[in-house]
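Render this sequence as a predicted structure.
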Amino acid sequence: MSLVFNFIAAILATLIFFVTGSHKNFSLPTGYSAWITLAVACLMYGLYERGRFYAAKYLEASTLIIVLNISVVVAFIGSLFLYSEPLSLRKLIGATLILIALSLVSYNKKSFKRGSRVLKGIMIGFLISIFLGIGWMLDKLGAAYFNANTYSILVWTIPIAIIYFPYIKLATLKNELKVTSWKIAVLALLNVIGYLLQLKALELQEATRVIPIVQTSTLTTVLAGVVLLNEKEHLVKKVIAGFTAFAGVYFLI
């Protein structure tokens, strides 16, 4: 992800906040638990984004995606305890099927090559997966304390201090913006809207249902590549993963 991505996302989240009129109902909670939740979530997301830059230096994107699937497990298990959500057999089957689908679509025999750099990357990837999982786990609580619109803008803006410490030169940001051009803005906009919708879903449903379903977006991207870009490599495995994920979503709904 580009260095300027989070800056653009924070700006777009702020614009959406005002354009949708959410600022008219703006209010902040007074309880300590709300601010502790926000602080921990922002710290987790900040550390994840910061660490992902380092993990990407040691791992291929396909390998990193596999490791990051751990975050779904962390968020799912953590939400069971944090929100005392019931663990039914149907829900367990659904979450397991989605995780299997994600693993199928991202696994490649060439991904895990031996070497100290790869091992170091996997260790970093494992650590940031835990950070990301905890962040997802706390989102439902944060949205309840602040409401989805307010929590979204805070989560997009506050972690910037962690992601870009120490100081990043303005020239570096300008160079990356030139390379990515308008595409990074579109990507940031889609991420901001997607995250906001995820928070709204968490306001309505159990986290152990929403989180696994939302992560099928990775699978959707791969399958879209098959249809739109004619990417037929490992086609059978991708189709099996698609049906597996669909079955998983069915059990979770």
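Summary. The chain has 13 helices and no strands. Residues 5-91+111-204 form one domain.
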